[in-house]
């Protein structure tokens, strides 16, 4: 079987690796770790096609370990158990792609092996590990943030293929891939195989697949989540359910949807129906614990609830008005009577003097006294 172009082009040394200079440039942390063979667990957080798998393989080679590559989409506890029980004298390195897909129970199972050093974990994720990885496991791993490839690096990667093409085709491919080297090489290879020559037209024709149309960084991804949120905001549960189904059917990460629901509950519903935040958080927790396919029922439940809820953006808008004043005026002096007074000197300087717990006195700094950020909440006229 012929190797895909993206696989054949994968760098085998740091010298041939393009991009991520902040991690693998001279004296940068991952370069030092690879060159000196330091053994530790870490997580690579970055967009698709930014080099996470390549860096994991280069690191594994540097410490002369046995590399076990798993995808959290299909792997489970049994796979981890088999690796641990493997009687190898070399360090066991587990590269867990899409680690954000491991649920809490699976991560808990992984934790003691990472803690004891029985395995060295390299996690890869496109999602913020602060939200996706349990705190005990995250605290035992360093996190390295990868950036999408800039146009200069993307051009260099494309030209390394040796395929003949004009500048217009290169520029189109760089713009289309949006920093994803793997996607650029996949489309390039398809155009070459299908049409023989590489032009803007042949590249456009090659870009015909469900996966690419709903790439997690692509336009369709943002169009559908935007349509979903706007449908919730307009209290249209039928439209919201339709866009929810579109996202799930296309393979969207359910936790991405659930996180947007949590944000929406405070941003658009707020104090008009405070239980919305409780419901949204419980949907997120259900998604985290149960996972697909069953969790789509929880997502649908939460979607209908949020769409039918009264809407009130007053807290959201008030906060950002306050933030504007923070940025405009800087650190305004806090009124003395509401300052903390833990020492006698501070008390002598009248810190805390005259403070009353229940008072109508304005506690804002002198320069912005009387400022009102919070308007009276306006409820949605649509009945829930």
From TrEMBL:
SUPFAM superfamilies named in the record: P-loop containing nucleoside triphosphate hydrolases, post-AAA+ oligomerization domain-like
Family: Belongs to the AAA ATPase family. RarA/MGS1/WRNIP1 subfamily.
One Pfam family matching this protein: AAA_assoc_2
Designated name of the protein: AAA family ATPase
InterPro entries in the cross-refs: AAA+_ATPase, AAA_assoc_2, AAA_ATPase_RarA/MGS1/WRNIP1, ATPase_AAA_core, DNA_pol3_clamp-load_cplx_C, MgsA_C, P-loop_NTPase
Keyword set includes Hydrolase: no
Top-level taxonomy: Bacteria, Candidatus Yanofskyibacteriota
GO molecular function, one term: single-stranded DNA helicase activity
Biological role: DNA-dependent ATPase that plays important roles in cellular responses to stalled DNA replication processes.
């Amino acid at each position: 079987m012929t190797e895909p172009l993206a696989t054949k082009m994968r760098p085998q040394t740091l010298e041939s690796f393009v991009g991520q200079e902040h991690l693998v440039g001279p004296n940068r942390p991952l370069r030092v770790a690879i060159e000196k063979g330091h053994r530790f667990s870490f997580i690579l957080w970055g967009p698709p096609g930014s080099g996470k798998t390549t860096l994991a393989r280069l690191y594994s080679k540097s410490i002369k370990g046995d590399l076990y590559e798993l995808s959290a989409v299909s792997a489970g506890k049994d796979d981890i158990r088999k690796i641990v029980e493997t009687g190898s004298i070399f360090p066991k390195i587990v590269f867990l792609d899409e680690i954000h897909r491991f649920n809490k129970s699976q991560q808990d199972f992984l934790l003691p092996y990472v803690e004891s050093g029985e395995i060295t974990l390299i996690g890869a994720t496109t999602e913020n590990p602060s939200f996706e990885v349990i705190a005990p496991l995250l605290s035992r791993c360093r996190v390295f943030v990868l950036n999408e490839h800039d146009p200069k690096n993307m051009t260099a990667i494309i030209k390394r293929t040796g395929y003949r093409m004009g500048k217009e085709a290169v520029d189109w491919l760089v713009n289309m891939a949006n920093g994803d080297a793997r996607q650029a090489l996949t489309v390039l290879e398809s155009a070459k195989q299908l049409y023989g020559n590489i032009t803007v037209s042949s590249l456009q024709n090659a870009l015909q697949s469900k996966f690419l149309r709903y790439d997690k960084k692509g336009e369709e991804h943002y169009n559908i989540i935007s349509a979903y949120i706007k449908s919730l905001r307009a209290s249209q549960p039928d439209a919201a359910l339709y866009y929810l189904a579109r996202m799930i059917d296309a393979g969207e990460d359910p936790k991405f949807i659930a996180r947007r629901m949590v944000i929406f509950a405070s941003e658009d519903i707020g104090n008009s129906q405070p239980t919305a935040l409780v419901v949204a958080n419980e949907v997120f927790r259900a998604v985290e614990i149960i996972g697909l396919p069953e969790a789509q029922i929880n997502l649908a439940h939460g979607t209908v609830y949020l769409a039918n809820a009264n809407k009130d953006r007053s807290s959201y808008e008030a906060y950002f008005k306050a933030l504007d004043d923070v940025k405009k005026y800087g650190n305004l002096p806090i009124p003395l009577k509401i300052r903390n007074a833990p020492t006698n000197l501070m008390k002598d300087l009248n810190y805390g003097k005259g403070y009353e717990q229940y008072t109508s006195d304005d506690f804002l700094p002198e320069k912005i006294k009387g400022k009102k950020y919070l308007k009276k909440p306006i409820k949605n006229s649509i009945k829930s």
